[in-house]
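re: that chain from earlier
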Amino acid sequence: QFLMANKLDTAMWISRLFTVYCSALFVLPLLGLHEAASFYQRALLANALTSALRLHQRLPHFQLSRAFLAQALLEDSCHYLLYSLIFVNSYPVTMSIFPVLLFSLLHAATYTKKVLDARSSNSLPLLRNLLEKLNSNQQNILKFIACNEIFLMPATVFMLFSGQGSLLQPFIYYRFLTLRYSSRRNPYCRTLFTELRIVVEHLIMKPSCPVFVRRLCLSSISFISRLAPTVA
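^ sequence. v structure.
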């Protein structure tokens, strides 16, 4: 009755579990490398479906207007719908599947707990303990996802020069990264950029750091800072 009363949430729960399943079979290619590539695409397509359903839930009344598009781009679900479309037809990159896998795992765990509570307050204690441990590490997981999002930017450039990526991919991914940086719900990408800048500045200011390395890093920091969007 709980599942039927929350059909949209249940559909997203099933698609997230399927995303976790496909992502796991890509990261751990138990069925062979050829099959792993197909699981990579399935995971991203399932994530695109979940993101589209979540976006519909957040903005139920679709309008073909500039204002609606601007509002949609503020939603994290729209960001990851774009993310899935960027990588679904590209060369499989293990780093790109981790954000999809971990976000799906976190959201699926939250809804699984609701399903267990609807069934009985004491049902499946072992599974409940696993879900609690996952929830207690949520902040670290979100930081890891943000780190993946950041380092995928140079990875897309490397893929372009190695012949495994398209010319448009780095530019579209840069747009995705600016959306994540400006996210209202998830500040971890912005926080990680700040933390990485502090760490790099601390290292290059040491006397043992060569002058040319210091200048190169400072120029890179200045360039990346100019590319960062303004956050209200």
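Residues 1-185 form one domain.
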